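Model: You mentioned two targets. I'll fold them one after the other.
Researcher: Yes, keep them separate.
Model: Target one:
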Amino acid sequence: MKQDYFYCFLEPISRDLAYIAKQLEQSIFTSPRVVLTHSRIFIEHILQKVIEIEKLPPVRKGMLMDQVKLLEANGYLTDEIRDSLHYVRMQGNQAAHDPRKFRYSEALLCWEAVYMIVKWYVEVYGSHKIVVPEYQDPSPQKQQTYDIQELVFKLDALEQKLSAAMNPQEEAEKEAAVTVEKEVTEEMPGDTAIRTISYKGESIDIPYFLRDAFLLPQRFSKSETFLIRLGAEQHGRIMSELPNSLEGLCKHVKRFSEKNEAQFFEELKVFIMEEKIRRRIVSERPGELFFFFKTDYIVVTEELSSIQLTEEKFTGIPNLLRQMHDDQMERVGQLPMELLILAKYDRVGVGTVEKLFEQLKDMQKS
């Protein structure tokens, strides 16, 4: 794996700790409060590892002060490390309760104290082969960063996993390491699984960027009417309205059955897959405009955008063209990015929209 972040030297000791440190460091200039709060939790995990190594009595989770007192009473802390621990603890406590705006400078001072603690931990309890680099102030991140809510969710999940890995079962640690490695190399902001939707033993992870996604009924060919009826009852307009289990969803509307639930669940899996593909396309081509049809797409050039929506240009779809004109859509550039929205029109189906898309694609190539 590419070693492209400061705390990668922690990986031989714990991939979980390394990845949490990475997320925190990259958030200093965007989320000072989150950094202060979770730095406290971060060092709590480090001290828990030290207590286990030294075979001292375990301390209940969330009791950082008691951890520090226990290690200090047994002579394991220098004055410098003790002071650093108390500083991070107090800053974290303040950030967890005080609603004021926290400054970048406060996050940086706390982060330097965290470095002192990590350096002590690695040099005293890590392998002699691990070299701790000199402290460096982090730089503002130029790449896309995590939304605050997603960042907190991700850190909470990682910290829970780290707590579970304290269990001395080798397989659990191994599994956690594999999961984190995948996240480091493949995940982009917005991909974090924020919740799970299940149906009869199967489940789908809902990524953060789709947490409140509009469920356009036309995207669900077999479930279109089911979704329209659910939407009228405020049960299926957006992703966050869906329950964690789809079993019993049909009871909210008349004349629908478990078959409709099963079809919708299968189409929901396809919808999420298509949205992930689209998101990757957009992220790889920033500054471009697109028309999407399922997982296929067209880049909207200025030339394509200026083409008039006439029967001379677009054949075989007169009914769609007439209704678009009624809505003041006269040229290609006025079409919606999600072309399947056009299937909302009277006697216009997915096949008609596909005809439009294919003609647009041919015009783009010519």
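Model: Target two:
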Amino acid sequence: MHEMALAQGMLEIVEATARREGASRVTQVRLEIGTLSHVAADALRFCFDAVTRGSLAEGAELAIDDVPGEAWCMPCGGTVPLARLGDACPRCGSYQLAVTSGSEMRVKDIAIA
């Protein structure tokens, strides 16, 4: 389950930021997760709850913002929506696509006390 490794990495980022800011507690972590990233949000929530026990982020709310998939189509020369990796361009049917959005996962912000 790669969500456990992701949750642990996320906790490292959150705790380092909270300590740098002199916080005693993290109350919320907001993530952006691309629809093409293959991250299961429910599994990530479960893992986040597990790895944050005993940390500054214990009990923090995990808010997740979905980032839609987009790609640049070489033949069309424009940005198109992309529901899944490997799909064809919805405009021209080409598979010459470069993903421009939707494959990322990042900590957007944290709320501290």
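Researcher: Noted. Anything on target two?
Model: The mean pLDDT is 96.
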